[in-house]
Amino acid sequence: MSAETPQKTMSEIADDYEEEKLQELEDRLVARSLLYQLGDGAQPKQGKRGRLKPGQHLLMGDDPRLQEMPEKPTLLDFVRLRFTIGGQDHLLQSARLAANNGAPEKMVLACLLHDIAVSGFIRSDHGYWGAQLIEPYVDEEVSWAIRMHQCVRFFPDEDEGYEYPVVYHRMFGEDYKPEPYILEEYKRARAHKWYGSALMICKNDLYSFDPDVEVGWEEFEDILGRHFREPEEGLGNDNTSSSHMWRTLRRPCNAL
Ligand SMILES: [Fe+2]
Ligand SMILES: [Fe+2]
């Protein structure tokens, strides 16, 4: 007869689960935000807040698993040291298309940064997050257009030569319908003086890539220099409405 394994209580199971989700870095313990866990399809049950071993602390400050950032990071430092590579091609190729189509510089910048949330921060509601992230550093029209491309992209405007993106049928399904808040936002955007700018982002939103064409960020350094106001203190060290977002990108696993 095999020895019986004692049954764990619900609270012990919850504690085990939480512990599984904590990663140890020798003397530091990494606590993952709820968002990471929900992203894995797990809704964690409440458990004890990690078990610190003697001498161990929760991770605060730079994360040794990530690339070190300069003291006063610029946008391109974040691009280089934090953003994913794949999403950057989409931004760069869209910006080049906008430039080739004769878009004004600040709209080339809007295209360059339109999906910055997708490649650099959070996917869900990407237009809003992206706009908020860069808002203090760009012309108001640029962040407005980025915020609104989130809704405008779902609604064709044949008079302006914008069709519903064919790729969306594949991405979201043939019968996908934007949620009511998107429809309401679109009505507001449609009546706004800068509607054309949000539409310009959608018209230059390039979905198919030529793998042989390489576009680098250096192509847009001058435009960034003229239209993205880098704070002297470095992004995150300044005191703006989005400094905390840059700091979170820099140190995403700070315990608090
Ligand atoms: Fe987008
Ligand atoms: Fe896009």
Description:
With 256 residues, the chain is mainly α. The protein has 2 domains: 11-58, no CATH class; 75-239, Hypothetical protein af1432, CATH 1.10.3210.10. 46% of the residues lie in helices and 3% in strands. The protein contains 13 helices and 3 strands; from the N terminus they run H-E-E-H-E-H-H-H-H-H-H-H-H-H-H-H. It has helices at 10-20, 34-39, 75-81, 85-100, 105-113, 116-120, 126-134, 140-152, 166-172, 180-190, 195-203, 221-227, 243-250; strands at 23-25, 28-30, 57-58. A 3-stranded mixed sheet has the order 1-2-3, with no helix packed on it. Strand 2 (28-30), helix 2 (34-39) and strand 3 form a beta-alpha-beta unit.
**Class per helix and strand makeup:** mainly alpha
Main β-sheet, in a few words? 3 strands, mixed
Annotated CATH architecture of the largest domain: Orthogonal Bundle
Under CATH, the topology of the largest domain can be stated as Hypothetical protein af1432
Roughly what fraction of the amino acids lie in strands?
Answer: under 5%
Number of domains: 2
Heteromolecules bound:
fe (ii) ion
Question: Can you count the helices?
Answer: 13
What is the CATH homology-level superfamily of the largest domain?
A: Hypothetical protein af1432
- Uncertain stretches of 5 or more adjacent residues: none
Query: Helicity level, as a percent range?
Result: 40-55%
Cα distance, first to last residue? Answer: 50 Å
For the biggest β-sheet, the strand order reads 1-2-3
What is the helix/strand order?
HEEHEHHHHHHHHHHH
Give the radius of gyration.
22 Å
